[in-house]
Structure formats: C-alpha cells, structure tokens
Amino acid sequence: MTVDILAIAAHRDDVELTCAGTLLKAVDAGYQAGILDLTAGEMGTLGSATLRAEEAARAAQILGVAERRNAQLPDAGLHNTEEARRIVVEHIRHFAPRLVILPFPIGRHPDHRIASELGRDACYLAGLARYAAGGNPHRPHKLMYALSYREDPIKPTFVVDITAQFERKLSAIKCYGSQFDGAKAAGEIFPTGQDLYSLVEIQNTHVGSLIRKRYGEPFFTHETMEVQDVMKLGVQSM
After folding, report:
1. Is the full-model pTM beyond 0.85?
2. At what angle do helices 14-28 and 166-174 cross, to 10 degrees?
3. Helical H runs in 46-139?
4. Nearest C-alpha neighbor of 153 from the set 71, 218, 72, 56
C-alpha cells in the first residue's frame, strides 16, 4: 500500500480532531491517504481499546482513507526508543508517503509530544538503506505539523480551507461516541462549558476566518514556503 499523504498520531481520534478535513480534501482531489495510530487507546478513561478500534474503523470509512494501521505502542507510555522507532519506520516504509502530518511537538498530553518526535525521527530513519527494519527504504518529502487547538502564539505557516469537508470531518469525530458524547474537553481541547463538538466547530471557524473562509485547519512547517506566482496568492490584505 502506497499513499500520498499519511497522518501519524498518538491515539485513535487524534487525526479526526486535528487534520481530518485536510485528509478529506486530499481524498476529494484524488490522492491516496492513510492513517497510522501509534497506540490502541487502552488507557482511556472511557470506553475500551476494542470499542475505539470499531469507532476508528467507522471514522476511516467516512474519511475515505486507503488504509488505517495501528502500531500497538503503549498508550500513556509512548517513548522514542530504538524499538519504537523501528516499528514506526516499518509502517512508514509500508505506506511510502510523500507527505506526513504529525502532531505539533508541544502538547499537554505526553503521548502527543512524543508522537511528534518519534514520527519525525522515524521519517528520517526510514530513508536509510542500512537501517535494520523491514520494508524498502523510503523518506517522505515533506513533514507538516497540525496546530489545531493550540493556545501558544504560534502563527500557522498556512491554513487549509476545509469548508467543503467540515461536515464530514464532524461526522468522523462523532464516530467516537464513547469518548466525545457529552464531553466538554479532549486531548489539547480545554473546556469552556460548551460541548466538544461545538468547540471543534468554533475553533475551525476561527482558523477559517484567518484565510477569509468558513472553516480551516492550521499547519506549521519549519521550512520557508515557496511561491511560484505571487499573482495567485490568496487571502485579501485590505
């Protein structure tokens, strides 16, 4: 299985919350997308790992991803070890993506922070011909980090317009009823008294407004973005 875009996250439901609209947009454009969940979510307060696997499968159908895999690393015990890197390298070589979406490397949940570091390191190691892991060497061309729900003053490198995909994104999130029905917070989403689904819409609406669109998802890249034609730049300045 080779995909164009691969989202790597610590837990089942992280991808849906942070970058599902972008995956949907890629699939709508004819690209192949994949998801790699690093843990099974067995330490979650609500539901169970088995139930979350069923919910993740339903969400993956809505997102139209070509394949969703689970690395079976320990939930709430994720570490960037040699063994963990080898496991993730083998999954990256399996998917052979051009683009990888990772969590932002700062987060209140330790698994989110480690997932970012582990995913980045594995993307590099996957390209080493002599690295002792299964699969053919492959190094992704581009890494980008999902910025959704962050409170620190990090300006997105760019925002993806997900207006046409938002309702399907929300439907994918709602597949995780065991985690989110009646919830007021989750992961990096802090409580405000509103239900979680409303918080997702509010945040995506705010980000969308930054590019003068209804809904958006924010991303960060360490590299300076290239522009070939300044006449095609979007977002009105005045």
Report:
1. yes
2. 140
3. 49-63, 82-95, 110-125
4. 218
SS3 85: helix
Task: Print pLDDT tens along the chain (238 aa).
Answer: 799 999 999 999 999 999 999 999 999 999 999 999 999 988 877 778 999 999 999 999 999 999 999 999 999 999 999 999 999 999 999 999 999 999 999 988 999 999 999 999 999 999 999 999 999 999 999 999 999 998 877 899 999 999 999 999 999 999 999 999 998 888 888 888 999 999 999 999 999 999 999 999 999 999 999 999 999 999 999 9
For 95, the token pair is 């998917």
Eight-class DSSP state of 230: G
Q: Which domains does the chain have, with CATH numbers?
A: 5-221 (3.40.50.10320)
Q: What is the DSSP string of the chain?
A: ---SEEEEESSTTHHHHHHHHHHHHHHHTT--EEEEEEE--TT-SSS-HHHHHHHHHHHHHHHT-SEEEEEEEPTT-----HHHHHHHHHHHHHH--SEEEEE-S--SSHHHHHHHHHHHHHHHHTT-TTSSSSS-----SEEEEE-TT--S-PPPSEEEE-TTTHHHHHHHHHT-HHHHTT-S-BTTB---SS-HHHHHHHHHHHHHHHTTSS-EEEEE-SSPPP-S-GGG--S---
Contact 10, 114 (CB under 8 A): yes
